[in-house]
Structures are given as structure tokens and as C-alpha cells.
User: Fold these one by one.
Assistant:
Number 1:
Amino acid sequence: MSSRWWKINLAVFLLLVGGSLSSAAEPIKIGTFLSVTGPASFLGDPELKTLQMVIGNLNAKGGLLGRKIELIHYDTGGNAKEAVDFVKRLIKSDNVDIIVGGTTSGDTLAVIPDIEKEGIPLISLAGAVDIVEPVKKWVFKVAHSDRMAVAKIYDDLRKRGLTKVALITGDGGFDKSGREQLRKLAPEYGMVIVADEAYGNKDTDMTAQLTKIRATDAQAIINFGFGQAPAMVTKNIKQLGIKLPVYQSHGVASKTFIDLAGDAAEGVRLPAAALVVAEQLPDADLQKPVLLAYKKHYEAQYGPVSTFGGHAYDGVIMAIEAIKRADSVNKATVRDEIEKTKGFIGTAGVFNMTPEDHMGLTLDAFKIVEIRNGGWKIVE
Amino acid sequence: MPEQLFQFLVTGITVGSLYALVGLGFALIYNASDVVNFAQGEFVMLGAMTAIGLLAAGWPLVLAAMAATLLTVLVGLLLERFAIEPAWGASVVATIIITIGAAIFLRGVALLLWGKDFHAMPPFSGDAPIHLGSATLLPQSLWVLGGAVVLVTLVHLFLNRTLVGKALLACSFNRAAAQLVGINVKVMLRLAYGLSAGLGAVAGILIAPITFSSYEAGIMLGLKGFSAAIVGGIGNPMGAVAGGLILGVLEALGAGLISSGYKDAIAFLFVLMVLFFEPTGLFGHKVAERV
């Protein structure tokens, strides 16, 4: 009898200990490194807010696989060297299970060697094609590529029967990568580049470059960049009285651009993610409910959404879904599950990952929009 | 080609007058204390951002500009009183480092107040371009040019025609001797910081409709303004204006005639050449070296 009591007591004790151990289980750790300050801060800032929002909500609903999620964040300030240090720290001392981040292409490209060596899944929020081409085993991305933006612009130009284009780009990584794609894809779309001008991203006047463009027989001007410089270019074009169609990149798909460029922005076309025109989408559009939900959620907490915050949303939800399907945080299993992502409706488009394609978006993910009366209008 | 050349010149003068206006602010503090105030760009940013904020709140332009200028003057005075004055007697280099620290601090405060976005300021008198033959310029550029002329004249008159201005210059030439003849050096220094901040703020408000503004705008403007000031001979307000115009025209011609990718390199190469062959600047005082 007494020995039986003893056994029951032991069993109860073990159950209690076991129970308390499992409820105090280590949280699932999602690491991130974003450019929350520095020149790319307007990308990194909404990204971080989105990650905090999504993870906060999920934790309030009980977390993931019965465990809480912990977000560990470092601000790279847009400095690729810092990004490398932070990613090493995330992997080696914070022991994160997965990394969502890399605001800029520069930051992401710099950390890829470490990611591949350590074998940890990375979902990047940056644009450059080089991140996933050639395919790297552990690296995925959810943002549109600059190549897609270029293809979309050229496609629209071709539809309008315009073939002679003048390029004007800044000196940042995004600008340079865009320029490279513009030059590379031109022959494929039958485009002839008649001018190729550059400016510094902190310059306050681009009329000299645009005067040169005016003297060519260009039929359209393409400006690839982000921040205040494209707004300056747009204003200068108007100042010089140049009447050519103007194309901007997806880098300026935010209200700030319209505010800065003012009247000069009227008629400017650009490829943009569906997020900026969510309300204008037909109700049958698969993305519409996702976009409106994210928008409502984000705007209730922080103010106007941007496509960049949307990338963070896509990245972290994709990671969470993969962990759910894997039913563990085993890095190899989670990686395999991310690669199997099919029909995932994000803010950037519908993702279908394959072992050959670690981005999974098609050209449909972009809409050509025109700025009319200070707002966006889908024109395709 | 000549039509293009004319537009390049107009562009150069527009950009140059902007640099000149910022460069002007460096002169006063340098004259009073031999210190290059690296927070000068932040004064420019503060003036612009405050004015933009007040305009957005519905203030009329003139009132917003005046309030923004006064506020920036106050910031300049506080900076002098609580950061520069406690380091009284420190070396020039130490004081310069303090101004760099102050610049970072002011940028941080602006970041907290106004966020990271760029802000636009509506132009004073519309944005219909003015045609000068084949070239165009914005009405705001005339405001900037005019502002530069008025401010440089005022600074010149102040330094050379008023007793207070001369006292300020005296502090720079020989602080001990200035004190001996009864000049209150501390008051002069405060005056210099207050006036410089005011000059910076006015510059910021005049150029904001062209350049936009953000918490970081002071870095680039400060750098270009500083380059303008050293090309022209730092401490000489006329020199700063000439230096700014030269830099602006060089940049525009470089971008237009050679390669837009190298325009900054061309301008900075010129700055280096000037420092190499004329270390005191093109219009600097050719004074005997003080030890």
C-alpha cells in the first residue's frame, strides 16, 4: 500500500514537473535585422512595426505550436558590415530558429555566406534578383525583384508604342541594380536606351542631367530610385517643361512621393504592388481580403501602410505557416516547408515556391499605376 | 549646345546660391572663435523643419518663418550656453568635436519630433517655371539668390560697420587682447552662435521648397556649405557666397558636359586643389599665421 502511494506520488510529481516544464518551454525565436535608421529607414521602419504587430497578435492568441514567439531585432542602419555581425550574433548567441529580414539588398547579400554556412532559413525582404539567383539552399525572398519592375515598365511602354527611352538613376544600390536590369532587358523588349544619366541620391537639382536628356530623341524617361531624389527628378522635369511620359520604379510607391513631388507627379506611371491600390481591385481578386485586412490592422496602430511593411508581413506569415506545417522548428524541415509554399496569398502577390524559384512571384504581382489627382489609379 | 550650356549655368547658380546661403552661417562662429561649427547644417534643418511644421499647423508663411528662426536662435544660444561655454578654454579641436556631438543630438531630437519622412514646403510664390531664353528656373531660386545677397550684405555690414561686429572680429584675432580692451568675450560668443543659428534657419526656410527637408537634411547641406565656405576662405562671408556659386556651377557643368556620375568628384577635386594651392581659400584673409 505504502509503496503504491509512493509510486502514485512520484507519478503526480513527475506529471507536475513535466507540465510546468512544457509550459515554460523556450519561445520560438524569430531573428531579424532591418535598416530601421539610416537612408533605408522608411523601408525598415514599417517592416519592424509589421513584425512586432503580427507577432504580438499571434502571442495574444496563444503563440505558435503552444509556444510563445520571441522577436529578436537588430538595427543595421543600412550598413552591410553591421548586418553581417548581427546575423552572426542572431545565429550563434541568440540561437534563433529562423531569420526574417534584410531590408536592403546590400544587407541581405552580405549575410548570405554565413546563412549558407550555418544552415538556417532566411526570408529576405529585399529586392535584388541576385539574392535568389542562382538559388541558394537556405535563402528565400518575398519582395518583388527589380527585374520584374523593369519588365513591367518595358511591357507598358511597348503597349504604348514607345521604344526610345532615357534612363536617369541615382547612386544607391537599389538604383544601380535597377539600371543594370534596365540595360539588360532593353533588347528583349525592343527598347533603345538613348540617354543614361546619373545623380547622387542627396542631390538637390537634376536639371543639368535632364537638359541633356531633353536634347536627345527619347520618347519616355525612366527614373529608378527611392527616397526624395525621384521626387526631385519629377519636379525638375516639370520645371524644364519636358512633356515626355515619366516612369518611376516601385521604390516610390508611397504617399510621400506624391506629397513631395506635388503637381509634377500627375501622370507619372510606375509598377506597384497591389497594396497601394487595394480598394480599387475587383472583389474577385484573391489578394483583396488579405490586403484590406493587413491595411486595416496596420493603419489602426501606425498610420498609412507601405508596400515595404507588406513584405515583412508576407515574410513572417510565410515563416509561421512553414513552422506550423513542419510542426517543429527543426531548421531543415522548416526550410523544406518554405520551399513547398504553394498558393500563399501575401500582400506582394500569390507565392508559389519551387526548388528552382525561391521567390515564387510572377509578373502579375505588379500593377502599372498612374498618379491622378494625387492618388493611384490602375491603368492596365 | 549653347542653349544647354545656358541651362547648366542657371542650374549651377541655383544650386550654388543654396550652398552659399548655408556656407554663410559658418562664417560668424568662425570669426568669433576660430571654431568650425559642424552643427550649422542642423540649424538649417531645424529652421526648415520647424517652419514646415508650423505651416502644416495652419500658420501663415511669414509668421511661421519668424517663429522658426527665433526658435532656432534659441537653440543656438542654448547650445552655446550648455555645450560650448562649459568647455571654456578647451582647444579648438575639442570644441569642434563638441559641435559634432551637438549635431548628432539635434538630428536625434528632430527624428523624434518629425519622424524619418521627407517633408515638402510649398514654394513662396508658386512653382510656374520662369523662362530665361531657353533656360528655366523656379521662382523659389530667385528667393534663394535674393536671400543670399541680402544676408551677405547684412553680415558684411555688421562685421565691418558696427562696433559689436568689430568686437566680434577682435575676439577671433586675439581673445586675450579683446578682453583687455573691455570686450566681453563670452557675450560675443553667445551672440555669434545665436546669429549663426538665425542665419542657418533663414537659409533653411528659403531653400526648403527646393530641397525638401528631413531630420538628416543637415548633413549634406552642412557638408556642401562647409565646402563653399572653405573654397571662398572661411570667415569671409563674401568668400562663402563666391565659393558656393563656383561649386554649384562646377557641379552643373561637370554633370552636363562631362559625366553626371563624376560631378561630385569634379567639385571636390576643385576643393582639394584650392586647399592645396591657396590654403586660406580663394578670398581668405592673407594674415600672418598666428601661433
Number 2:
Amino acid sequence: MRELQSAVIGGELLMRERGERPMHKLVFDPGSGELRLRPRDEMPLAEATPVDQIASDGFA
Amino acid sequence: MMVFVDAARLKIETTVLEKTFAGAFRLGGEPGDTARLEVDVTVPGGGRYTLLLTCAADYPSSMPDAFLIKPLVLRDYHGQELLAISPSHQMHLLRPEGRFLRLCHYKPENWHPNVTLYKVVLKCLIWLVAYENHLQSGRPITDYLGK
């Protein structure tokens, strides 16, 4: 299940790089200490950090 | 004198990290040395890693360097050590320092002094997710993170 979650996040990253609309929000959940995908229309968790912008800023 | 920025900035960095990586980080520095943050992170998929961020005396005006210090050896899809192919644009790796891989994170044009070490750690976490996907697919990391 954990490996599936990582693969799903990877799939979302690929979609974004292809210019497709992402299906989920990417957040960091301090409770688990891990990145998570959340439904786009779900209310943001109070303690979670949105990571979409950080991811889309690009890497250098 | 401790090089790490000013006391107020140190307090901000510590407060954010205590809320997000409680018990998993070590932040400090020695007189005359660069400030260092070590943080243990986990990738969904089970991989556990330790990152090292080093801050120069002019941080946060300058970006920290981000290194992967544990595990010491990472290999690509083909079994080749990442250290041996660094620097690598396709794998978003900068010139290594000693045995440590140096990860790409913020672009200089997107860096500003309000970016905290916490956000750099998140950036590195995204790199690690892309790396673990690379191990399964063989795709270069640029496919996941852009060129």
C-alpha cells in the first residue's frame, strides 16, 4: 500500500510535467512525516502544508 | 560567534521544524563553521533517508546546500552509483561534496530569504519521491520534476 502511494504521487508528478490537470493536492502531513495526496475538493487539513506550489516551482 | 543567522531567524526555523519533524532533526552549528540541519525523512514507499542542509554565513540571503548523507550509496535504475554520474541534469544532482550527493532544490530565481529550511526539506522530499519512482520506472528524474 505504501509503495502504491509513492507510485501514485509519481504518477501525479508526471501528469503535471505533461501539463495535465492534477487529480489531487500534494500535501505534507506532519502527523505521518510523509507527503500525501488529498482529493482536490477536500478541505485542507489544518496541520498539513500544501506542497503543490513548492513542487511546481521547479528544481535547479 | 555562531554563524547561523540571527537569533530570531533561528527561533523561526526551530519552531517550524518542531511542528513538522519533531524528534527527527538536529539543528546547530559550531563557531566559525556553517550552520547545519540534519533531518530524518521517510518516503511513502518505505525509504528512509537523512538529509543534511548547510547554511553559509549569508543565509537566508543565499540558498542552503542540500546533501543526502544516509544512505551513503544510492544507485540508479541501471545499478550505477549516483555519485559516479554527478553532476547530472537528468537526475537533478549538483556537483557532490566528498561522498555526499548534492540535491537540486530551489531555482535561484525562486529563492528568497523568507523560504525556510523546512521548505527546502519538502523540496528534497519531492526529489526523493521522484527518485524512488525512477527506481521502478527507469525514467529520468527530470520526467517527474521538470527540466
Number 3:
Amino acid sequence: MNILKTTALVALMGSIAIPAMAEQRVLKLFTDASDPAPKAAFEQLVKGFEAENPDVKVEVNTFDHEGYKTAIRNFLTADSPDLANWYAGNRMAPFVNAGQFTDVSDVWEENALKDSLGSALKSMTIDGKQWGVPYTYYQWGIYYNKDVYKKAGVEMPKTWDEFISNCKKFQEMGVDCLTTGTKALWPAAGIFDYLDLRTNGYDFHMKLTSGEIPWTDDRVKAVFAEWKKVLPYTTKNVAAIDWQDAVSNIVQGKAANYVMGNFAVATFKDGGMTNDTLGFMDFPTINPDIPRAEEAPTDTIHIPAGAKNKADAKKFLAYVAKADVQTKMNEELGQLPINKNSSVGDDPYLQAGFKILSTADGGIAQFFDRDAPAQMAKAGMEGFQEFMAYPDHLDAILERLEKVRQRVYKN
Amino acid sequence: MTVSPAMSEPRAETGMPAPRRRRLNRKLAPWLFLAPGVLMFLIYVLIPIGESMWISFFQWDGLSAKTWVGLSNYLELLDDDAFYTSLKNNLIWLVLYMLAIPFGLFIALFLNQTVRGIRIYKSLFFFPFVISQVVVGLIFSWFYAPGFGLFFELTKWLDGTGIAILANPNTVTYGIIAAGLWPQIAYCMILYLTGLNAVAPDQIEAARLDGAKGIKMLWYVVLPQLRPATFIAVVVTVIGALRSFDLVSIMTDGGPFGSSRVLSYYMYEQALSEYGYRMGYGAAIAVVLFAIMMIFISGFIWKMWRDERGL
Amino acid sequence: MFPKPIQSMSPAARLTYQIALPVMLVVWLLPLLGVAVTSIRPSSDLAQGNYFGIPSYLAFSNYLDVFKNSPFASYMLNSFKVTIPTVIGAVALSCLTGFALAVYKFKGNLLIFFIFVAGNFVPFQILMVPVRELTVKMGLYDTITGLALFHVAFQTGFCTLFMRNFIKALPKELIEAARVEGVGEWQIFWHIVLPLVRPAIAALSVLIFTFIWNDYFWATVLTTGADTQPITAGLQSLNGQWVAAWQLVSAGSILAALPPVAMFFLMQKHFIAGLTLGAVK
């Protein structure tokens, strides 16, 4: 008996002693960076952090991009990592409200992030506190086929009216003026967001997504009236098409324009387009009196409330917020850094995006499904999809959305 | 049987009080044999059914604490267009899925011959049932895809524009059901082929002598003998129709704009999908689906119970 | 025999039947054939719009490409890791329960039996939220064990139905004789009944293998990520990555379908015996 006890004790001591001797603290990071570019960016980020903090070992657990959105619910409550990435705006609200994210206002304070990450402050703040650190964002806008424009002999549109009149020319050539693939719903929301930002402006759009304006409001109807103008020139059956399939419409010259986020550039180029054939432009003006607002979703890193190593996690956040770190990381990602002292890669689409975003005096929206709460977002995007196929259902759609609004924002 | 040597051994070992112990043993034995299976079934099936019903009275996002809301999830269902769409689609599924039974019977009759290679034919006709519904869904997505799908091209050749079945809210459910029928017909076919094997040849001969032929023979002589096969075909087809989840999820995600939802998918959407996490509301939908299925399940069980007693 | 044997009909009818057979088969398997051809079509054909013509060459390399830069192999392996233990577990448990319900007369016997049968038919959705919670709480969320445990429990319902009916059909005299000889209950199960239910075990094994291999719903509810997800869920997420690359989707689909298909063709007799249990009386 005694011998057995002592051996057990020795074994126990041994198991404690080993990590203590190495003096390495572990930091667990869960991420959805499963695509090649984000994966490389995170690997490089972790390497940099470990070089600066040799006593910390970062263990990365990469999830499938789609699966992550449901997995996060489980690991936050069950097996919490020290760091997890997510999205800004209303998308993080459920976790903040449920007490699943740690308040990191002190990280913002100590590192003067309110200045350097100022552009994202609003979307990271709930109840006057900050709940994570943003590391990247990317612009939305119109990607177009330059050759098709040349063939049609039309000018780049500055206004929505010009855009529509170009559409007629494209139609004569048998080319769809606007293409998209709304099988996954969200691509339609990009079109709606821009039309609303251009028709009613940023403040209205924010009030709409936060439930303060009825969907049956005439100003909302005005947005759909603008949308209706372009529907005859939009690709058919978009509800059955994936966004990547719609990319090939642009690549093959079957369509001229595509309202998309900058992440799609890689897909366009995979299809064979180059900087000479793929163009990017800001969404045209509808109401010239409204200050120009843009859409740029922000990706973030958070410390779950159940994190075991919060001290090092906060160090990690401070590291991610640094200007040079964000510069390097976003070069890998092919996206824009949040830190105002970072420099932007010399990719023409990034440069163009940076220019329109840094001069957007109206404001920067996240994206419909990040600005609006989940249920509203889902119902809204379904409504947009239906409207694109059946514009005359508009009244029924808006009434349905209004019903959802009254229920969702009640609590 | 050569069991006796093995049997005599334990008796020698158990020794004197054997009869008594055995009687006790025989009373306890079934429960011991049942324990592991029943326990697992209790933990993973029976208790969760009760828990789901309980959860349906709460508002719960799976993160924060549950809030008791009484019947309000059910009241909300009554005013939820998406719920009615799902219910309607479930009904369409249920009705059209039944087509698998006559089609299965037809193919079974067609294949019930003894020519060379017929066994291979039977296997190949049965093939779709063995494939996962995920693969069936992908196959049919490709078949229907606008722009390059075989079906789309065929309809384009016929009407000039082509029918994008999965993009149109009026046709999408039928498109998915057709995909679902493919393996289901195969299933019914195999049930009937087995049933046909056992049809009494003397009765057929007797009927033939009486001048019965074709449809008449089928209806009055063959089908009554196929009743057990038909019963199982109905059971698996009803359950299959109400369980339809995989195909909807793979082919359309319930779209376009929610028009191909069925209850099983809508429940998942509300409770677990990217924009969901309304566990209470999802549970309420599940309870409704459960209630609908219970109608059928009770029917089946009732019939089986009667047969059991008749034995 | 019904319908009338084709041999007894006119030569013309026989010929028509011989022609109709392959024609029907091709029509019946048309979607599958399309996918099979697409799976060996080079991507350049698809890019140029050659969707239906003869492939410009046979690109069997598509089947290799499926494994490149994708966790396809891992998904397949996970499927085996979930399926095989489930088959063993569910069949083992149901041998016990089936034996208990078929051999012993006790109060509640039929009730328990019908609870197993009814449980087997319930919609998955009524179990989803609590089972997921339970799995998370046990620390088994996103593990192969968690998924397999649930499958074992659920499939026990179906397997019990099957086993109980099979054992019930065995000659009662065997067990009676053994009891008269004074054989213990466990011995009866192990030495007398188990050897006799081998065909049932074989039939159940192939059936459960196919059911579990093809399960998609529970795979999406209880697992995420390539380390644990089986091929059904994996194929769906790869489908997201391979959009427009239909040659890969097709090749992947065919690979994913292979194990149950192989199982079916190898064990056809058992498979059909299992599936059609009760179709004849």
C-alpha cells in the first residue's frame, strides 16, 4: 500500500513539475481562418507574438468557416479558449449580453487604442465598454468587367441614373448589367445596404437595422423603388446561384457589374481576371445631398469570459492592435488594417477601397447581418431575395418584415 | 443440436441450491439483459423527448439563462408565416411521397422475371437507396442547376428558356420531393420484390384457371397477399416524408426565401443555424412535428399490437 | 408467379422485355450516370461549356484532386471511426434486449418493446436540443465518441425490433430443453441463442453500417470541423469550397457513396433480408 502511495505521489509531482520547469504558459486561440490566406495570416501573427513573448505558447485550433458560427456557441459555454475571433457590431451583442465575452476596455485604455483604432471604436462598444480588438476590415463596392464596359462603349457611372442607362446598353448586347448569387442570402443584403445608404444615408440605415424605423415606412419603400429600376437588367434565377457561380458570369463577360466584398477578388482572379480586366468602383450616388457612407465589415478577436489565461490574452490583443502587426497581417489577408498608423498594401483594389473608406464622411456600416440582430437579418435577407424574384410582392414582404421587427426588438 | 455438453457443465458447478437460484435468476434475468439498452435509450431518446417539451415553454438562446414564457412560443407559431409554409410543404411531401409505393410496385412487377442477369438489374435498380441523401441531394442539385444541369438543358430544349426548378418557389418543393422519391421508390421496390417471392403460386394458378388476368389478378389476388409489404412500405414512406431534412438542407437550405422549408428543417434553422439560436421556439416546432408523427406512430403501433396479440 | 413469366409469352414480347430492361435502367440511373461522367471530365471541359458531350479525355486525376488541399481523407476516416463502433455497440445491445424481450414473459414486456419501436420512429428534431446539451455537458461535443454514443442509443430501437422478432421466430423447444437441463440464463443466451442469430447480426450490421454512414443530421448537430466530421457533413462543407468545380463534387460524391455500396454488393443477401424483415409473413 505504502509503496503504491509514494509512487502515485512521485508521479503526481512529476506531472506538475514538467510544465513548471519549461515555464511556458499556454494561450488557446480558436479561429475560423480555414481558407488559405487567413490561415497563413494567423500563423504568421502567432509566430510574431511568440517571438516577442517566448514564455507563451499559442495553441491554434482552426475551425471550418461555416461550422465556426455554430461551434462558438458551444465552446464559449463548455470548453472556453483564451481567445476567439468573431465579428463586430450587433453580431457580437448576443455574446456580450450573455456575459460570454470579457470587457477589454483596459486594453483599449492602456494602449491608446481609442485613437489608433478610432474608426472601429463605435462598432466595438456596447454599454460604453469595449469587448474585443478589431484587426481587419474590407470594403464593399461594385466589381466590374472592364472589357464589357469597353465593348458597350459606356462611361463609368457616377450616379444611379447613369448606371441604369448603362444597363440598357448592356441589355442590347445581351449582357446582364448586374449579377449576383443569392443562394446564401447575404449577397442580396449588400445591394440593399448600399441602396439604403445612398437613398437615406447612414443614420437612417442604422436606425432601420436597430429597429427604430418601421419597414413599412415610405423611405424604405423608396429604397426598393430604386432597386426595382435595376431588376430587369439583373441575372435571372439568382436565388439558385452561389455567389462564386455568379463570379463566373463576370469572368465570362456574361454580366457587367457585381456588388461584392473585396474578398471576392481572389475568386475573380482564380477565374482568370487580372488588374487590367477587373475594375472596382464605389457604389453610384442616388441622393447627392446625403454624405457618402460605405460598407466595410470588421473582423475581431475577443477574450471569452471563461478564458483561463486572461493576462496573456490581453497581451495578445495589445499585440494584434499594433500598427506594424496589422500592416503585416493584412498584407497576408489581402484586406485593410484598422490601425490608422498601419500602411495599406499596394494592391489596386485595396488602395481604392482604402481611399473610399477613409473619405467616407457619412459613416461606415458593418453589413446588414452584422448591424441587424440575427432574426431580423435572416428575415430581411429572405425578403430581399424574394423581392428580386417577385418585385410585386413588395408590400407583403414589408408587412412581414414589420411583423418580425415588432417581435424581435421587443425585449 | 450439439448444445448438451456445454450445458451440463454449469449445472455441475452451481451445485445444490440450483433450482431456487435459477427461479430468482429467471425473474431478474430479463431486466439485466435489458438494462444497458434501456438505459442508453432512456438517456438519449426518452428523456430528451420530455426535455424538449419542457424547453418549448422557455425563451432560451443556449447561452444565457432560460426564461419561462409559458405558451408564447406556441402562440407565436400560430402567427408565423414560415411555420405555415413548412406545414404546407410537409403535407405536400406526405402526399407525393406516397407515390413511391405504386411506383415501387410497378418496378417490382417489371423486374419479377427470371431472365439472364435479372439479379444484377434488381441490384442496380435498388442502388439509389444505398447512397447517402447528401449525395442524392448533390446529384440532383447538379441535375437541376440552371445554366448547365441536364434537366435544365432538357427543359430549355423544350421551351426555349429552361426551368430553374430550385429557384422558383412554386416548383422547388416538387423538385426536392422528386429527388427524395428516387431512393424511396427503390426501397418500396425491394419490399415488393421480396413480397412477390412469397406469393403463393397455387393461388395464382387457381385464379388463372378462373380467367383472372392483368390488373384484376393484381388487385384481387396478388395485392392482398402483398399486404405485409405494403404496410411496411407505408410506414417507411410516411416516416421518410416527415423526416425529410437532408435533401432540403443540401439542395436549397429551405430557399428560395424560405419556400421549401419543412418542419424538420425549420426547427433546425430556428434552433441551431447561423441566424437561429432560439432553442425554445425550435423546441416548440419540434413538439408540433412530434405530435404529427405520433398520430402515425400510434397507428402503426396499434396495428402491430393487434398482430402481436393475434399471434 | 406474378406477373406471367416472360418465357411463356410470344418471342416479340420477350424481345421487347430484353430491350426495355436496359433502357429503363439507364433512365432510372440517369442522374447518377451524369455525375459519374462528370467525375471523370477534365475541368477544362466544364470551363468551355462541354457539360454533356464526350469528355475530351478521361480525367481520373479528379479523384486524386479531391484529396489535395482538402481534408477529404480525414472525413472518410472519421466516418469509419463513427460507423464501426456504432455497429458493434448497437448490435451488441440489441442482442441483449432482443433476447430479453423475445424469451421472457414478464409484465411490461410488450410495453418496453413498443417503446423501442416507437422511439425508433420519432423525429430527430425532438431530440436535437437536449442531446446536444447533454453531449456538450459531457465534454463530448465535437468528438467521435459523442456522435457514436448517440447513434448506438438511437439505433438500439431499430435493432431491438429486429432482434426480438428474429429470436421470437426461433424454435422455443431449444430454450425449453436447455432450461430443463438446468442451463443458466446467460449460458442460454451465449451458447444457444447467439450462434443462431448470426444471420440477424450480419443483416443488422450491414444495415446499420449504411444508416450511420449516410447520417447527415447528427453529424451537423454534434460535430464541427474536419477532425471529427464524417464524410456526409464534410462533403457538404467541401461543396461550399468547390463551388462551380462540379468534377470535384461529383468525384467526391462517388467516393463518399462507395463504402455503403460496396457493403451492399458484398452482403446483398443479408442487406435485403434485413431491410425486408416483415415484408413477408
